[in-house]
Design goal:
The protein is mostly helical. It is built from 18 helices and no strands. The termini are far apart.
Length: 428
């Protein structure tokens, strides 16, 4: 631990976070900030090499991604008002469950075909790559640049979807893992242990603890025991404890954290939302940057050399077909009926965000493209590597994760401008 490589890692991580704090808003006009963190990790590896065995790196990366994603889904939930949550539940529930199932099936088929993998192994990789990453998605849809060019209905729904499907990916990934371990006997274990305990019970526990913590914080705030500036810090320290509890009792901690955040936001109201908005721009970087740096340090360059042709083909197909066709299929049932105008900004401020995100084909193109694969996939990839120790998992998943971060990071700014220009042309 006390080595030049460790101190250099701390230096580069701190410098990258500091630089993002100084230039992050301007950077979003050109590229997404996660690219800078990847570059810092690649620089560290170039200078110091792979500083520890890959399994140790993956274990450390999994832990950091767990914190980053847990805080990411919690901060997304805390940014939503109670009336926004109620309005987003219907359409958001469809997008989380139906779109997620579709993305899992499509990605599994692509990976199984391109890499000639057994179906269950491909299904594990498909589940790893399915969820929309909340941390990278937030870096795209938050801040003045995004707020100026992307309507709230798109930004809020993408955030809500990424918060929900990150936790539920646990359910999808552990089905093939359990079947690989126990064959058909694993169905009962998956339904009872994974489904009922690790997911359903985690949700109930998260909602209960989140509501209780919200009531306690609200009472402390009314009594003058805690100030407005400390509200977000208190909420996040509660989330640290909750994440630890969820892991201690072997449940889906990310899902529990998201639902706890929704309950906490509903109990606390607008004060915590304002604090969460201030935190979002810089707070996520504290966990995102070191996690992405570790990912860049752990990528298997040698194994990538053996799969780069198939990897590029799979990346192109995953980016094109993992998400866009599913969102297009949902366009007709989810778009508002004819003659139903979009609510005004005043209406949304009073009643809640517009729950119908797709009002024109451009909305589908934009929303369907920006479902980035990122830290949540890294977290699940680390867990799957630990569960299966299959040498094929990490090279394939890391290649596709890196490709998605690059593709979405480079297209975030130009596609956002293109979307805004198309919206202006329609209005004129």
């Amino acid at each position: 631990m006390h080595s030049p490589a460790f101190f250099a890692f701390v230096l580069l991580a701190g410098a990258t976070i500091w630089l993002l704090g100084l230039t992050g808003k301007r950077m979003k006009r050109v590229v997404a900030p996660p690219l800078l963190a990847l570059a810092a990790g690649a620089l560290h590896r170039l200078i110091f090499g792979q500083v520890m065995p890959r399994d140790e790196l993956l274990g450390l990366m999994e832990t950091l991604c767990w914190f980053a994603v847990g805080f990411g889904v919690a901060s997304i939930a805390l940014r939503l008002r109670g009336r926004d949550i109620r309005r987003l539940l219907g359409t958001g529930g469809v997008l989380v469950l139906v779109a997620m199932a579709g993305m899992w099936v499509v990605t599994t088929m692509i990976v199984a075909w391109i890499f000639s993998l057994p179906l269950l192994v491909a299904a594990v990789i498909g589940a790893i790559l399915t969820p929309t990453d909340p941390v990278i998605a937030s870096s795209i849809v938050t801040g003045p640049f995004a707020e100026r060019h992307i309507p709230a209905r798109i930004r809020q729904m993408l955030s809500f979807e990424s918060g929900g499907n990150d936790g539920l990916a646990f359910l999808f990934m552990f089905l093939p893992i359990v079947l690989l371990h126990d064959a058909t006997d694993g169905w009962g274990d998956w339904l009872l242990r994974v489904g009922l305990w690790q997911v359903v019970a985690a949700g109930v526990i998260g909602l209960g603890f989140g509501h209780g913590a919200g009531r306690a914080l609200k009472a402390a705030r009314a009594a003058g025991q805690i100030g407005r500036r400390s509200l977000m810090l208190a909420s996040l320290t509660f989330m640290v404890g909750l994440l630890g509890l969820m892991k201690l009792i072997d449940t889906d901690s990310i899902w529990g954290a998201f639902l706890a955040g929704l309950a906490l936001a509903t109990a606390l109201g607008d004060e915590v939302r304002a604090a969460a908005d201030q935190y979002e721009e810089g707070g996520n970087n504290l966990a995102m940057v070191p996690a992405l740096m570790l990912f860049a340090m752990a990528v298997p360059w040698g194994a990538w050399g053996g799969i780069w042709g198939a990897g590029l083909l799979a990346l192109g197909l995953v980016l094109a077909f993992r998400r866009l066709p599913v969102i297009w299929l949902l366009y007709l049932p989810l778009k508002p009926g004819a003659g139903r105008p979009a609510p005004s900004a005043a209406d949304q401020a009073r009643d809640g965000v517009d729950p119908r995100p797709f009002r024109a084909p451009r909305d589908v193109w934009f929303y369907g493209w920006f479902g980035p694969i990122g830290l949540s996939a890294m977290f699940y990839a680390g867990a799957a590597h630990r569960e299966l120790a299959d040498p094929r998992l990490w090279p394939i998943t890391s290649f596709l994760i890196a490709g998605s971060i690059l593709a979405h990071g480079l297209t975030a700014a130009p596609f956002t401008r293109l979307y805004a220009r198309a919206a202006r042309d329609d209005r004129s």
